[in-house]
Design goal:
By secondary structure, the protein is mostly helical. The protein has two domains: 3-82, no CATH class; 92-124. 86% of the residues lie in helices and 0% in strands. It is built from three helices and no strands. It has helices spanning 3-51, 53-77, 91-123.
Length: 124
C-alpha cells in the first residue's frame, strides 16, 4: 500500500466514526425536543384543569424562562475557564505556552534523574 492509501483509509475511518457519532447525537437531540414537547403539552393540560389556560401557559413560560436564565448565567460564569492557555495573540498567550513547555521539559528531566537514581541503586 502506498502512503496516500494508508492516509486516506485512516482519514475515512476517523471521519466515518465522527459522522456516525454526530448523526447519533443529532438524533438524540431530536428525540429530546419531541419529548420536551410532549412533557410541555402534558404540563399545560394538567395545569389547565386546575388553574385555567392563561395561568397554565404563564407558569410553563416562567419555568422555561428560569431554565434559560440558569443556563445563560452558567455559560457567562464559565466563559473564561474554557482553556488554560489563552488563544489570543497577546503577550499572555506566548508566556503561558512557554511556561507549559518549560514544565514539560522539567518533568522529563526529573523523570530522567529519577530513572538514573533507581538504576544506580541496583548496581550496589
Amino acid at each position: 500500500m502506498r502512503a496516500n492509501d494508508i492516509a486516506g483509509s485512516v482519514v475515512s475511518a476517523v471521519l466515518g466514526r465522527l459522522i456516525r457519532r454526530a448523526t447519533g447525537a443529532m438524533l438524540a437531540l431530536l428525540f429530546v425536543f419531541v419529548a420536551l414537547g410532549f412533557f410541555t403539552a402534558a404540563a399545560l393540560f394538567a395545569l389547565q384543569v386546575n388553574l385555567g389556560l392563561l395561568y397554565a401557559e404563564l407558569i410553563v413560560g416562567a419555568v422555561y424562562t428560569v431554565l434559560a436564565g440558569g443556563i445563560f448565567v452558567g455559560l457567562v460564569a464559565t466563559r473564561g475557564r474554557s482553556s488554560m492557555v489563552p488563544t489570543g495573540s497577546g503577550i499572555g498567550s506566548s508566556a503561558a505556552r512557554n511556561a507549559q513547555i518549560a514544565m514539560v521539559i522539567e518533568a522529563l528531566m526529573l523523570g530522567y534523574m529519577l530513572a538514573n537514581k533507581t538504576g544506580s541503586r541496583r548496581d550496589h
